[in-house]
Specification:
Blueprint: E1 9-11, H1 13-23, E2 32-35, H2 37-43, E3 53-55, E4 57-62, H3 65-81, E5 85-86, E6 109-111, E7 119-124, E8 135-141, E9 144-150, E10 162-163, E11 169-170, H4 173-183, H5 204-222, H6 230-241, H7 246-251, H8 255-261, H9 264-275, H10 286-308
Parallel strand pairs: 2-11, 4-7
Antiparallel strand pairs: 1-3, 2-4, 5-6, 6-7, 8-9, 10-11
Helix pairs in contact: 1-2, 4-5, 5-9, 5-10, 6-10
Length: 311
C-alpha cells in the first residue's frame, strides 16, 4: 500500500484555519488551540505579506486535559462522518482496534475532503507538571481506535491563547518558542523519520530549534523590540505551569539553542528547515539567522536565565 506523500506543502494559514474552524463541532471549538507552523504563520500573516508557509500538518491541541478525550472522540467522528480521511503512515496503515495497545495506537491524522495536501493532527496537554514523557490516551471512535498524544512542555502552548476571527484559538508564538527551547536542552542525534524537504539527515532538535529562530525573526520583523517582553511572559508562564521547578527550567532555557549557534552543521540544518518551512516565502541567509540567534540570546534568553539564577 502506498503511503501518503510527506513533502511539505505550501498552504495559506488563514484559509486552512477557516477550514478547520468550519469543520470542528461548535461545542469543541473552545477546547481547541492550533499550534505549530500554521499558528505562527497566521499570527505573522502581515509580516509574511499573506504569503503561504510550507507545512503538511495542522497541529491542534485539546485543552483542558479533563475534556480532551470526549472532545477528541467527537471531533474525529464528526470530521470522518463529513468525509475527512485517515492519513496512513508506514507504521499505521489503518486505525487501531480495541485490542491495539495504547502505545501502538495511531494518532488522529485526517485530511480534508478531496485535499490530501495537509492534515489535522490532534494532541493534548500532559496530565501533570511532572509528566514530561510521551503519553498516549485512547480515543475509541466509530471509525476505529486512535491515540491522543501528550508530551513535554505542550502545556505552555495553552497559556493565554489568541482567539482568531474564525472562533478558534492559536498558541502565542513566544509560548511555542519557549516550549521548543525547553524540549531540546541539547542537540540529540535523532533525525526526522521522513526527512525534511529533501534532506534525510535533519535532526529533530535542529528542526524544532530552527522554528524558534524563525519565530524570533518574524517577531523582530514586526517589532524591533518584541523580544524584550519575552523574559517576563516566559517567567510568568513557567511559574504558572511549573511552579515547583520553574527556576531550574528557566536557568537552562537557552542551552540547546547555544549548541546550534556554535555548530555550523547544526545551524545549517536549522537554516534549511526555516528556508523550506515557516520562512519559505522570504528565506534568510545563514548570517541573518545567526543575528537572530544573538538577539534572542541578548534580549530574551540571558535575562530570564539571570533572573532564575538570582543574578
Amino acid at each position: 500500500m502506498a503511503m501518503t506523500d510527506d513533502t511539505l506543502k505550501s498552504i495559506v494559514p488563514a484559509q486552512v484555519l477557516g477550514e478547520i474552524a468550519e469543520a470542528v463541532p461548535a461545542g469543541c471549538r473552545d477546547k481547541l488551540i492550533v499550534i505549530g507552523s500554521l499558528a505562527v504563520g497566521y499570527h505573522y500573516r502581515e509580516q509574511l505579506g499573506g504569503m503561504a508557509v510550507r507545512t503538511k500538518d495542522a497541529d491542534c491541541l485539546l485543552s483542558p486535559r479533563v475534556a480532551a478525550i470526549d472532545a477528541g472522540v467527537k471531533i474525529a467522528e464528526e470530521l470522518m462522518d463529513a468525509g475527512w480521511k485517515y492519513r496512513p503512515t508506514e507504521e499505521h496503515a489503518h486505525p487501531g482496534t480495541a485490542t491495539t495497545p495504547d502505545r501502538d495506537l495511531p494518532a488522529v491524522r485526517l485530511t480534508p475532503p478531496g485535499n490530501p495536501e495537509w492534515f489535522i493532527e490532534l494532541l493534548t496537554v500532559p496530565d501533570s507538571p511532572d509528566d514530561r514523557t510521551q503519553h498516549w490516551s485512547r480515543l475509541a471512535t466509530r471509525h476505529g481506535h486512535f491515540g491522543l498524544c501528550s508530551f513535554g512542555f505542550l502545556s505552555l502552548t495553552d497559556v493565554s491563547p489568541i482567539t482568531t476571527d474564525f472562533g478558534i484559538c492559536i498558541a502565542r508564538p513566544e509560548m511555542m518558542a519557549l516550549a521548543n527551547l525547553l524540549e531540546h536542552p541539547e542537540i540529540k542525534p535523532d533525525t526526522m523519520a521522513a526527512g525534511f524537504a529533501g534532506r534525510m539527515d535533519v535532526k529533530r532538535s535542529n528542526k524544532d530549534l530552527g522554528r524558534v529562530l524563525a519565530i524570533g525573526r518574524l517577531a523582530l520583523g514586526s517589532d524591533e523590540d518584541a523580544l524584550l517582553e519575552w523574559p517576563r511572559v516566559w517567567r510568568d508562564a513557567l511559574q504558572q505551569r511549573f511552579p515547583g521547578d520553574w527556576r531550574e527550567l528557566a536557568g537552562r532555557v537557552g542551552s540547546g539553542l547555544r549548541e546550534v549557534m556554535v555548530s555550523e552543521p547544526d545551524l545549517d540544518q536549522a537554516l534549511h528547515t526555516c528556508a523550506n518551512g515557516l520562512l519559505a516565502s522570504r528565506p534568510p541567509t545563514l548570517e541573518q539567522l545567526r543575528i537572530v540567534g544573538l538577539r534572542m540570546e541578548q534580549d530574551a534568553i540571558s535575562p530570564l536565565e539571570s533572573e532564575a539564577r538570582g543574578r
